[in-house]
Amino acid sequence: MMQIKTNREEIVALYDGFRQMRETQPVSFNPNFQAWNLYRYDDVARVLSDHATFSSEQNRFIPAEYRDSSPISSSIVRMDPPRHHKLRQIVSQAFTPRMVAQMESRIQEITNGLLDQVVAKGEMDVIRDLAYPLPITIIAELLGISTERRAEFKQWSDAFVSGDGEATEEDMQASMQAMSSMVNYFTQLFEERRAHPQNDLVSALLLAEVDGEHLSNEELIGFCVLLLVAGNETTTNLIGNAILCLDEYPGEVERLRAQRDLLPKALEEALRYYSPVRLQPRWAVTETTIGEQRIEAGQMLFAWIISANRDEAQFPEADQFKIEREPNRHLGFGRGVHFCLGAPLARLEAKIALNAMLDRLPGSWHVSDAPLFPIKNMSTFGIKKLPLTWNK
Ligand code: HEM
């Protein structure tokens, strides 16, 4: 077997593996997980968007003793219409594009504050110094977490995402502990905001209603935890992965610096080329076929977004990072009723972060050859360290 020497080779090997599966076993059953793996664009897009046949509601299909008991499992991402539709309408009243746009100057300020710490040094770890702290600070501010509780809030968030696929008993304990501290914290915060509403997301969530229905306490907690889990590591990965793309195509840094209007397209291409979310699960509601395979009612499916986004049948020269790619109907934020609610926020944060880096880190950029530590968990794709130098 080939010796994998560097992270780059590891990443190339990962994508080669997906290409092979698309070509030879596009719909294949994994007995370890008792789940179907789907690798092609058309199949992944179908499964994500046909919610009548492919359910998100794991609680309907997994016996109680095997269920993930976190508040996420009862949040909108693991719910089907019509309940999903109603709850999404409620949370959309609070989590509005206008509210996200209002964050722009704060995102700018936080980004610049973080870059102030490193610009003079001529080097930074993009993950540690910018891509990690930016989204978590924004979410904490959006939720109205007081400054004194921010350090704790970061620990809770870390405990949820520390799972590397190699979680120890201790990690699990820490994660359970974090979950219960967080549930207590949010319960108290809801009480405070009910009594004294403020101009923040939690207050807006408490007020939002459809047909006279408000979110229950459990649903409110589920949504806040979902924002924390769904919105942090993914956005960190988008920023980190975009820098990895630019490192592979060094001429593009200069081009983007000169033509800033290309940046949104470059970020969409980064979402396709190195997708922060690897896969999403679904469960077959009825018996159906995908390709030549018969899927039984109740079986689990993994829709491999990361593979679909490199499918040559959908994206010509799929293994090339082309910042002006058009069309670019990538599945990085999903498809259909569960399409990422936080996409405008993630796009805005990544655009501001990259723009500030282009402004303040002059000349050509170089990512060190040191180990980058790809995240090993099953659902996200990114790296843990990204040492970058530039011309001072
Ligand atoms: C680059 C960053 C991000 C990526 C790649 C991403 C990706 C995704 C994907 C693929 C889904 C679909 C899940 C499914 O089909 O089952 C999703 C849903 C969701 N995302 Fe994101 N996300 C990102 C950032 C965010 C942020 C910043 C937030 C909020 C602060 C957020 C909140 C959500 C929520 C609430 C859902 C569930 C929507 C629903 O079920 O109706 N995401 N995201």
Automatic annotation (TrEMBL):
Keywords: Heme, Iron, Metal-binding, Monooxygenase, Oxidoreductase. It comes from the Bacteria. InterPro entries: Cyt_P450, Cyt_P450_B, Cyt_P450_CS, Cyt_P450_sf. CDD domains: P450_EryK-like (cd11032). Belongs to the cytochrome P450 family. This is Cytochrome P450 YjiB. It comes from Ktedonobacter robiniae. The gene is yjiB_4.
